[in-house]
Task: structure prediction
Amino acid sequence: MENYDLYFPHLGIGIEKLQNSISVFGFSIAFYGIIIGIGMLLGMSVASRDYARHGHKVDDIQDFALIVIVLGVIGARLYYVIFEWEYYSKHLLEIPNIRQGGLAIYGGVLAAIATCIGFCKKRKLNFLPMADSGAIGLILGQAIGRWGNFFNAEAFGGYTNSLLAMRIKESIVNPGMLNSDVLSNLQYISGVSYIQVHPTFFYESMWNLCVFVFLYNYSKRKNYDGQIFLFYLMLYGFGRFFIEGLRADSLMFFGTGIAVSQMLSLLLFVISIIAQVILYAKKKGSL
Result:
């Protein structure tokens, strides 16, 4: 593996030169952006299909998608910047630069929910059916989008020697993403240092894909509007809570040492369960 930038030692799979962009007419385009763009388009397509099969007007959710794509990216960036303010307060001109990463999905999720509420209120639409279909598209987009982290050599976990352990050449990794656990377990091969870590981007992508398959199929027989949206919050929050615990580059809650995404995942998990109990009881007429 001496010539590999990235290598899975127990699987015998590696990439000799990990490219994170392509050049088109002299202009560099990051794979991160390309992959997120693909995820957004496929997510919008699936959400539209689900919305239509429940008898709703497709134009409404497509109009919403065009708005939320922009506001979701802004929300994801602002969320990231807020919890990395110690750095960005000294580098204000870097705030708009998202080409090398720096998007926090929970910021996008919160922005999407707020946008959906406002959009539905303005058009006098029911929020819950659109949130159901939107959640299906969103989780698919998340599953695809995580591979952007792969090409950026980011969103990895702490040291591991498990079956899926991933070795990355230290020189291609952002030093700010290396914690003491990772650095204390550097691997030296022919004078080159490598980190060996959990591929948490892959764990989350696979979890999200499983959640997508469940939500898309369960949506055909959902018991009430809002159930799919709440299942999304519950299932994504559940998986993200544990995966975030493995991450080496978590955003922390203002110096507390507590991962923001773990706090939010737990909160959304609890809220979704309470909301499902209330909505189910209302449907059964016991409230």
